[in-house]
Structures are given as C-alpha cells and as structure tokens.
Amino acid sequence: LTGPSAWHNKYPVAHGSRQSPIDIVPHQASRDPNLSQIVLNYDRCTSINISNNGHSVVVEFDDTDDRSVIQGGPLDNPYRLKQFHFHWGEKGCEGSEHTVSGNSYASELHLVHWNAVKYKTFDEAATAPDGLAVLGIFLDTGDDHRWLHTITDALYMVKFKGSITDFKDFNPKCLLPSSLHYWTYLGSLTTPPLHESVIWIVLKDPITVSEKQLGKFRMLLFTGEEEDQRLRMENNFRPPQPLKGRKVRSSN
Length: 252
Ligand SMILES: NS(=O)(=O)c1c(F)c(F)c(-n2cc(CC3CCCCC3)nn2)c(F)c1F
Ligand SMILES: [Zn+2]
Known about the structure:
By secondary structure, this protein is mainly β. It has a single domain (4-250), classed as Alpha carbonic anhydrase (Carbonic Anhydrase II), CATH 3.10.200.10. The protein is 8% helix and 29% strand. It has four helices and 15 strands. It has helices at residues 7-10, 122-125, 149-152, 211-217, and strands at 23-24, 30-31, 38-41, 47-52, 57-61, 69-72, 79-88, 99-100, 107-114, 132-141, 164-166, 182-187, 198-203, 207-209, 249-250. A hairpin with a 6-residue loop joins strand 6 and strand 7 (79-88). The radius of gyration is 17 Å and the shape is globular. Reversible hydration of carbon dioxide. One of its GO terms (molecular function) is zinc ion binding.
C-alpha cells in the first residue's frame, strides 16, 4: 500500500488543515478586488536539465539569483522559479490534481517557485507557511500544442526513474494560456513530504495539448532501468483534499 491513501502513516500532515489539491467551486470563490494580476518575469530564465524522479518528469532551473520570478497577486515577495513538472492520468478524462466543480482535466502543470527574500534555501522555504508559490496550469486535450513537443521530444531520454539529461534554453512562458486569471488559496505540496508551505495560484484557463503529446508522458516509467518490473508512469495525481474552512479567492 503506497498510494495517497497510505501517505498519512509516514506523513501525518496528510490529514492537516491546509492540504492540496482541492476541488475549486468557482461561484463559491470570493472575487477579491485587492488581488492584483500576477506578473511572470521569465525572460532571463535558465533551464538546466530534465529528469525522471520516479514520481514525475521535472525540468529544473538555475535559481541562484532572481532571473526568473513570479510576483504580484497574493504574493508579498517575488518567488524564484525552481522547477516545473506535470501530473497526468492513464486516459484523458482524469489526470489533473485540482478539479473544477468536480471535473478533472487530462493533466496539470506545476511551476514551483520559492521565497528567496525570506529564506536562504529551497529546502528551508519548503517547510515555511509562505515559503513556496506554485502556479498550476490545466491541460485539456484537443489540437497539438505548438511548443510542448520540445518537452515530449526529450521524454525518451528520461524514460527510467533516476535518468537525467541536459535541457537548456527552455522558457516555460510558451506553456501559458492566454489569460492569467486565477484562483488562489493556501495549501501544501501534493506529494510527500506534503509540507503545508504552498501559496497556490491556479490559472482558470487551460492550455490545449493533443492526446498524442499526452501519450508520450505515459511512456515514462515509475521504475528504474535495473528493475525487472516495468511500471508505466501514469495516474501520478493526488485526489482533492478537504477544504477545512479555507477560502478560495478569485482574481477579477
Ligand atoms: N505537486 S507540487 O505540490 O507542485 C510539488 C512541489 F511544489 C514540490 F516542491 C515538490 N518537491 C518536493 C521536493 C523534495 C524536497 C526535499 C526537502 C524538503 C522539501 C521537499 N522538491 N520539490 C514536489 F515533489 C511536488 F510534487
Ligand atoms: Zn505537482
């Protein structure tokens, strides 16, 4: 028993008061006029590598200075881009972590940022209540996404858990939807150690990718090259967690 329902044994915070993901109910979100727009300064971002960590495929960035940050919206400081990764299902009707009025998307992209103004390292920030800011973007299936192939073409290089390869000059700005309207709430990492350290910013509009592109994520493996059992990487999403009285705010 290793899935999300067992995580509480080793990580009791799994039953905490600000766990993620959640089901977002748009008409119950409070429109907050004080919520400014979010600003993404990714123009000088520096991607380094792409890897399979046995849970997802992750693209890491150089976060030694403020070259790529997210700011504004619910954030009091600029937060530095550290990595992005995806969650997906085995078929198109589920795969996202957040749901909207009970509906899942086929996948969800998470851009993980940390508060380098208040904390010295990512690991330190990851345990602080305002340490991380994760931008969530839903992926819908339809036409090919014109830039996602840059990532899907690299997936064969990181098929096995523990594999890593160079991945330079990728700017995730090309993965944003047209509108930056968002919902925001206080939550957690959606994978162990499930720290309650994330200010979530979930964009309302999805981007569209094709079934073919999404299928390439499903050729990744949870297992390493040396393991004889080959387990396809799919359904790497945590289901929605109790809201426990939290308020979800909506940008205008
Ligand atoms: N789905 S999510 O909520 O966007 C999401 C994240 F935001 C993360 F930051 C991580 N994460 C986990 C670690 C290990 C660190 C090991 C040292 C202590 C902190 C965690 N590195 N990044 C993560 F795995 C994840 F799934
Ligand atoms: Zn994630």
